[in-house]
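Hey, quick one: can you model this chain's 3D structure?
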Amino acid sequence: MQLHSMNLSSLKGFNEEYGILPPGVYHVRIVDDAMRVAHNGTQYLNLRYDVVEGPHTHRCLFDGLHFWNPNEAARRLAQQKLKSIALAVRLPNPDVVQDSAELLQREMLVSVRIKTDDYGEKNEIRLYKPLPVLQAGGQSGSAPAAVVPAAAPVPVAAQPQTAGGTPWDQPPF
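Sure thing. Here's the predicted structure for all 173 residues.
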């Protein structure tokens, strides 16, 4: 495809402009959930968050939940993260998350830090918090309110039944 002598001299390179986010608290929306394969060959749930306000609007953060890792501590951490996310987005029943799609398009606050590992610097989400709820008169309160309308509940008979409880308790295949 011919690009007709496109002039790119005023633009920064992708890696220069879109590096890691500075540490801080960000208002995010969960926009994607996908299964990925980790470096050790195990699958994990990858959540993508878009920053929805502030100077970093439209930037992305990612969070890997390793439910199927052979390491018990990694699996427990993934379950704790999922519970924290469910609470932060105010799911009706944060103790039972049947499908990661229940989290999509919901918003919360996340606290981000910079972590360095064998692959270099990257953002790491350290804390998940619900958005403040505005009461009459514009004052913040703590009463739960849905940020995004909840999807219609699936009838119990139509939900897939798994032998070990939630899909997170099952092997990926």
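One thing worth noting: Residues 72-88 form the longest helix (17 residues).
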